[in-house]
């Protein structure tokens, strides 16, 4: 499907929303000059437009499949992966010592978002591999790093993440996969994992699985879990793929969407593995990968939103129906409302994702605790708002198409079907929202309060030039602050959890308004000012209803007994 990489939007947001110049001013990222950023975005944009976007539809029509135990990917995906690998995109933010480009996550986030817009199911393969690279960089031994990282960064080998088991979904601590020491520094890993994205492929020389399993002396729950690197083919003495390990793909799921990405049931039968991190320290190591993936999955949502928006706009500009000045449906007020909402929401979600990545970069570059807590606070908000924007915008995209939206040939429905899972994997959105109001507020709401101070200060300054936009942003932020204080004061955690998702949505609405206000100030009277005005006037006010829901407490949601639910 045609796709146009929105490079100028990224450049604009880098400059005016997330202060990318601060990142480029650090020693760690001193090479990320304006020229480099522009060249990277342009090259990645070309890859997305010319190589990846044409694979979106074939992947949907011809899903990945298992043939006599061999995983076959959709036509063209092998060439797509090769182009991604050869461009160095897998190792974009990887450590240069192992062949990575060492570029900021902010830039990688923009590139990953473009790839997601072009072809979500293929993009999941490099995303999984990037997550594994980061986990190995932080937790693996020097030997494992030296052997695996260069091959993964070059895209010669791919990576997966194996947490889920039939009885252990959100509750990862319930897993039963086992690992036993072989006495030579390696381990035998046994168990079944389900829903493993890109559990195998026919284009990388080797597939490296990061597997969570329990050692014999591991206590029940998450504290007794260890992490193992289990390759499909065991590296020989020269580090080349050698004999097959004792693992296989049992089956590939039939899914609602994301057909080009094989979602596998994996069986490990005493497969040889190497410990990553400390014994029983698996969750800490896996969290590195999961946090990376959460940022990536939020970006997948924004990418899908952009793709769906472009698709719907192209249709609206052509479809003739009713009397309008242009003769096409684009001039009907309700269609305008849909297109404006799609575009304004996508900008808000994109800015939040980039701000999240920028906080990670600043934390990595400076080691500053405030940046770390900012990154931690923004991660669940970005994951949830990014993916829900993907769902909302792609659903609206179907509506813009009218009946044709319901017909597969138009391609509008694919965006919705493909993006739907992003709200489920990498920690369901409900659980992310609980993380925001619980773990991320263990500081008594300090990190949240610091962010709200910044938003209010900015709105206060903007009052002088754009009072009609700055006023509502300030007021919404003040209401959010009151609800944040209410949240922190709840000692019964169910009171927080019952309203966690609406609270997160309200937070995202306010953050989105903050970035729209920044955009408007940078482009007074221009298209981004008009978009900001729409967002602040029409979408931001949702916060008020959301905050009422957020503070409703647990009594009502537990009002019906289980018996009353079914009666
Ligand atoms: C296409 C696809 C690809 C995937 N890829 C991978 C992968 O590569 N690797 C991997 O390991 N896993 C993968 N998964 C698994 C995915 O991460 C899980 O599906 C997800 O974590 C939810 O687990 P579950 O499906 O068991 O749902 P459940 O945990 O059974 O959840 C069901 C519902 O209950 C809610 N719920 C559960 N527990 C709580 C709680 N404590 N508090 C509040 N609400 C709760 C959930 O939010 C959800 O709404 C994938 C799944 C899919 C569908």
What does this structure look like?
With 567 residues, the protein is α+β, with helices and mostly antiparallel strands. It has helices spanning 7-16, 20-24, 34-52, 56-61, 77-86, 105-118, 120-139, 142-153, 282-316, 333-366, 369-400, 412-419, 429-437, 446-462, 467-489, 493-498, 500-522, 527-539, 542-550, 562-566, and strands spanning 65-67, 70-72, 157-162, 178-181, 187-197, 206-214, 225-231, 233-235, 241-244, 247-252, 263-276. The protein has a domain at 438-560: Up-down Bundle (Four Helix Bundle (Hemerythrin (Met), subunit A)), CATH 1.20.120. Helix content is 55%, strand content 12%. Strand 4 and strand 5 (187-197) form a beta hairpin. Helix 6 packs antiparallel against helix 10, helix 7 (120-139) runs antiparallel to helix 9 (282-316) and helix 11 packs antiparallel against helix 12 (412-419). The longest helix has 35 residues, at 282-316.
Helical segment count: 20
The separation of the N and C termini measures 48 Å
Q: Taking all residues together, what is the mean pLDDT?
A: 97
CATH topology of the domain at 438-560: Four Helix Bundle (Hemerythrin (Met), subunit A)
Low-confidence stretches: none
Extended strand count: 11
**Bound small molecules, deduplicated:** flavin-adenine dinucleotide
Q: What's the gyration radius in Å?
A: 23 Å
Given helix and strand content, the structural type is alpha+beta
Helix content: 40-55%
Domain Acyl-CoA dehydrogenase/oxidase C-terminal: 281-439
GO molecular function, one term: oxidoreductase activity, acting on the CH-CH group of donors
Function: Involved in the assimilation of dimethylsulphoniopropionate (DMSP), an important compound in the fixation of carbon in marine phytoplankton, by mediating the conversion of 3-(methylthio)propanoyl-CoA (MMPA-CoA) to 3-(methylthio)acryloyl-CoA (MTA-CoA).
EC number: 1.3.99.41
């Amino acid at each position: 499907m045609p796709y146009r990489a929105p490079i100028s939007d990224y450049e604009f947001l880098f400059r005016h929303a997330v202060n990318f110049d601060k990142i480029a001013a650090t020693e760690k990222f001193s090479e990320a000059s304006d020229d480099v950023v522009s060249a990277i975005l342009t090259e990645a944009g070309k890859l997305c437009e010319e190589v990846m976007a044409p694979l979106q539809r074939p992947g949907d029509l011809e899903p990945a499949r298992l043939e006599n135990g061999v995983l076959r990917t959709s036509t063209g995906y092998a060439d797509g992966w090769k182009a991604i690998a050869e461009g160095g995109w897998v190792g974009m933010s990887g450590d240069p010592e192992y062949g990575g480009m060492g570029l900021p996550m902010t830039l990688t986030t923009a590139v990953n978002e473009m790839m997601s817009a072009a072809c979500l199911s293929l993009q999941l393969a490099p995303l999984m591999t990037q997550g594994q690279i980061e986990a190995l960089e932080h937790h693996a031994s020097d030997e494992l790093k030296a052997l695996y990282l260069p091959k993964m960064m070059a895209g010669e080998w791919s990576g997966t993440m194996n947490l889920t088991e039939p009885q252990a979904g959100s509750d990862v601590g319930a897993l039963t996969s086992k690992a036993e020491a072989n006495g030579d520094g390696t381990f035998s890993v046994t168990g079944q994992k389900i829903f493993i994205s890109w559990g195998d492929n026919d284009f990388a020389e080797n597939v490296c699985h990061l597997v969570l399993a329990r050692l014999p002396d591991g206590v029940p729950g998450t504290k007794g879990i260890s992490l193992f690197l289990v390759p499909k083919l065991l590296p020989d003495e020269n580090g080349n793929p050698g004999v097959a390990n004792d693992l296989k793909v049992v089956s590939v799921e039939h899914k609602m969407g994301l057909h080009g990405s094989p979602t596998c049931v994996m069986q490990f039968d005493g497969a040889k593995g190497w410990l990553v991190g400390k014994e029983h320290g698996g969750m800490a190591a896996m969290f590195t990968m999961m946090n990376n993936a959460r940022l990536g999955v939020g970006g997948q949502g924004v990418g899908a939103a952009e793709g769906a928006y472009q698709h719907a706009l192209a249709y609206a500009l052509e479809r003739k129906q009713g009397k309008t000045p242009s003769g096409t449906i684009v001039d009907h007020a309700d269609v305008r409302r849909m297109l404006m909402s799609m575009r304004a929401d996508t900008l808000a979600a994109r800015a939040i994702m980039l701000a999240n990545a920028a906080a990670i970069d600043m934390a990595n570059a400076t080691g500053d605790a405030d940046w770390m807590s900012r990154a931690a606070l923004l991660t669940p908000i970005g994951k949830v708002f990014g993916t829900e924007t993907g769902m909302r915008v792609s659903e609206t995209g179907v509506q813009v198409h009218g009946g044709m939206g319901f017909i597969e040939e138009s391609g509008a429905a694919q965006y919705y079907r493909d993006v739907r899972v992003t709200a489920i994997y990498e920690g369901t959105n409900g659980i992310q929202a609980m993380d925001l109001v619980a773990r991320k507020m263990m500081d008594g709401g300090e990190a949240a309060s610091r962010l709200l101070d910044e938003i209010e200060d900015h709105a206060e300054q903007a009052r002088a030039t754009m009072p009609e936009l700055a006023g509502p942003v300030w007021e919404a932020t003040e209401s959010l602050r009151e609800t944040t204080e209410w949240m922190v004061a709840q000692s019964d955690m169910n009171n927080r959890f019952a309203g966690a998702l609406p609270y997160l949505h309200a937070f995202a609405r306010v953050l989105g308004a903050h970035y729209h206000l920044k955009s408007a100030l940078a482009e007074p009277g221009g298209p981004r000012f008009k978009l900001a005005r729409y967002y602040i006037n029409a979408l931001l006010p949702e916060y008020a209803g959301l905050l009422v829901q957020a503070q409703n407490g647990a009594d009502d949601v537990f009002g019906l007994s289980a018996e009353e639910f079914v009666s």
